[in-house]
Design a protein that fits this description.
single chain; 200 residues; mainly beta; seven-stranded antiparallel beta sheet; 12 strands; 14% helix; disordered N terminus
């Protein structure tokens, strides 16, 4: 486990909070969810951007769940199980669950990341759970959403996470983040939750 005590600018990663049976059960459950097509991960529908530049790809993906705050989601039960195990281990308590969804991206030869974004325009934490082993790193940037515009040259990398089945990260949701497309693996599945935590 890597991380620090809970505070607004948290970053914590844990690869060992579920056992192998649970990891497989989560993957099976996500495969059985009903996904819908979303044309571009860099679109306005997929969060708030405010980052300009040419060096970003727009990757189609399938989504199960909703971007609408507090909407019920097909992945809700699975996501709640995963995040509760993570937070119980690290002794955090959820104050509010803003959304829960799962993203499935397909193999692409585009080597650019998608456009950096934040998920919702309110104080929150991002919880990402990696459902399967894959390439397509998640990038979390030093820069935070303020409503001002950033040029791509302004961005500097805070953390880079390679997807590993059973691994999860939590971080301050005001940080811009994005991901590279998976070029080797056919599918890349994650669970994405936005949370408010007691004491955070």
């Amino acid at each position: 486990t890597k991380g620090s005590k809970m505070r607004s600018d948290i970053f914590m990663q844990d690869d060992n909070f579920l056992n192998e049976i649970e990891i497989l059960a989560v993957e099976t459950g996500i495969w059985n969810c009903e996904f819908r097509y979303q044309p571009e991960t860099g679109s306005a529908e997929d969060g708030l951007s405010g980052v300009v530049g040419d060096n970003f790809g727009e990757f189609p993906m399938f989504v199960s769940g909703s971007n609408i705050p507090n909407a019920l989601s097909q992945v809700q039960d699975i996501a709640n199980f995963v995040v509760s195990r993570f937070l119980d281990k690290h002794r955090f308590i959820i104050k509010e669950e803003i959304r829960a969804r799962s993203n499935m991206t397909f193999r692409s030869l585009d080597t650019r990341p998608s456009r950096p974004h934040v998920d919702v325009d309110k104080e929150h934490y991002v919880f990402l759970y990696y459902v399967n082993d894959s390439d397509g790193d998640t990038i979390v940037y030093d820069q935070k959403y303020t409503g001002s515009e950033y040029d791509q040259s302004d961005l500097t990398i805070f953390k880079k996470i390679t997807p590993k089945a059973g691994s999860a990260v939590i971080f301050d949701g005001s940080r811009y983040h994005t991901n590279y497309s998976n070029q080797k693996n056919n599918f890349r599945f994650i669970i994405n939750m936005n949370l408010k935590l007691i004491g955070g």
